[in-house]
Structure formats: structure tokens, C-alpha cells
Amino acid sequence: MLIKIIFAFVATVAFGKLFYAPQKDLWPSGIVGAVGFGVYIYFMEVLGYSSMLSNFMGTVALATLSEFFARQYKEPVTVFSVPGFIPLVPGLPLYRAMNLIILNDYLKGLSVFVDACLDAMAIALGILLVSGLAKVYKTSKTIIKEKRQEAGE
Amino acid sequence: MASVEIMAMTKEEVLEIALTAGKLLLCNGAETYRVEDTMLRICALKGMTTVSAFCTPSVILLSDESLRGFSRMYRVTNRTVDLTVLSEINDFSFNLNKSHKNYAEIMSFLNERLNKPSRRAYVDVLCSAVAGGCFAVVLGGGSNEFMAAFLGSLLSMAFLKKLAAFRPSSFWSTTMAGAIICAVTLGFQHLITTTSMELTTAGALMPYLPGMAFTNGLRDYIAGDLISGNSRVGEAVFLVGGLVIGIATVLGIFYH
User: Is residue B3 over pLDDT 60?
Assistant: First the structure.
């Protein structure tokens, strides 16, 4: 499991480089990827949750961390979140589904495909939830600031 | 002091700066709401508040709302991903008034980003090879799978970089990438029979999955840009389809 997390870290850094991420943000984005994958695999293999829920938790963890890093390093969130969530993308179920369908096992293939789609949707929900919350946080901060200014005047 | 310099820039120049910054952002893979926000921020910092911006993944419109106002439009045809440019333009737009640059200096800064020479291809090839190999291990493979996926990603990316001069469509190139990955994996499995076919292929195809389009589409939805969200998520589905068709063709020939 630890080996997998380390390789997820390296893969995320390689992805950051592939997407031309700034040099100083490569290591933080690697951490984001490793944390997201670590949470996913912890929920999946240690706690025994379903793949969909583990994906969701992993995405929430990595999206929160990348929002945090984005404020810390004053960069767009995309710099961290895009390479970071790649280890969670359900490439393996997608391949399995296609392979089963080629072998004329449509029933099994479709059920694996639906699994892959659910995983992708769980990731999407995680991203939507966290970036929605981040937006609420940002607006609430500006509202507080405006109120303070009004009180000051 | 600062206000004098703000006045020194005409409306046309401000619009030119804002449009160029938006162009850079959109061509290098920013979400559309970020492009709109940045253009409006630049205009507001330079004293133009009655400006509207509209942006989709393929077009940018920037217009003064007044009756005789200027209007600019730019059609985006090819998009890549360069996160460094995104973060530079982000910094630039927030610090526009603090840096006290005049129009010529700002435009030379932006044009330098616009004409940025692309990096040497072998870096991309090596990165995608490392990423592909590592993903094979992440999915549960051993050293055999690492080697095979490394080789698969390396060869397919090298092939795509060779072909990049012909400007192939993204759908076509991902299909080719899928086919090459599958062929390399089959060849490797022929040499070392214990290699797991599914772990290797799934690992090697990871660099081609459209993660950027997918996340950007979702973030566009959250920002309320439904058209952009639809088209980005559609692009992601389309590219995955291309990849799957490429792999399925080679596998189908092999199983036949």
C-alpha cells in the first residue's frame, strides 16, 4: 500500500511536468495526488467501503488540500487539482469493461462500465462539492469585509 | 502617481491587454469563468467598469457596453495545457496596478508568453512514460507491468510528437495512442507471458485520459457557465471514446 502511494506521488509529479506546471508547485501537487490516492485506498482496502464512496472521499480530501495550497502559494486551484486527481480516474474498470464487451460478454461488460461511470461521477461530485464550498467561503469573506468597511465609515 | 499612469492608457489599449491575457489563459487550459474574471479585473483596474466579457471554449468576446464602445473578439482554434502561463497571468492580473508598467512593457510581457517556444519533445515523452509506468504499479502491477507500461506510453507519445507537425485532430491522435499502447502491450506479453494485460494497458493509457477537460468542465458548471461545462465534459467523453476505439480495434484483431 505504501509503495502504491509513493508511486502515485511520482506519477502525479510526472503529470504536473507533462502539464507544464510551475517548477515550485510540482512537489505540492505530488503531495495532493498522494493524499487523495492514500485516502481512497485506505477507505477501500482497510475500511472496506465501496469503490464509489472511497473515490468520493479521496476526491474531497485532495480537492480540499488543493484549495488550501492554492491560497498558500497564490496560484490557480487548477495547478494542484488537475494533476492531483488523475490517480483516481477509473482507467482499469474502463479497460475491463471494453475487454469484456469485445469478448461478447455484454452483461458483465455493461455492469463493469456502469461501475466505472459511477466512480467518475463520485469524483465529479467530490470536485463539485469542494469547489462549491470554496466559492461560498470566498463570497462570505468579501461580505464580511464589506460589512466591516461600512461599520468603519 | 499611479492614477496618472492609469489615465495614460487609452480604452483600446486596455481592451487589447485584457483580450491578450484572456487569449493566453484560454489557449493554455483555463476554465472559462477564470478567463472572464481576469479580463473584467484587468479592465476594472484600468478604470473601465462598463465592460462585458463572454467566453466559451472556442471564442472570447470582450465589449464596452456603451453605444459607441469598442468590441473585440477572438476565435480560439487550438488549445494546449500550460499551467505555468496560467499562474503567471493570474499573478499579472492581480498586480497590474502595483507594477507600474506602461502599455509597451505589458504587451511585450504578454507577447513573450504568446510566442513561447514549445518545450523539447523528449521531456513530454519521458514524463508520460514515467507517469504511465507508475500508474501500472499504482493499479497493482509489478516490475514487468512497470516496464511494459513505460514502453507503451513512451512509444505512443513519441509517435504523437512526431505527428504533431501535421496538426492531427485530438480524437484521431488519442485513437492512435490507444492502438499503439495496445500493440506494445500485446508484444510485451508475447515476450514475457506473466505480464498482466489489463494492468499494463490501463496504466499506459492514463496519460491520455482527458482529466483537464473533465475537471475544467465541472468547475465551469459550478461557476454557472453551463454551455462551457457541457462542451468540456462532452470533449472528455469524446476523447475517452477515441482511446477505447483504438484499443478495441487492436484487441479485436488479436482475438479474431
Answer: no
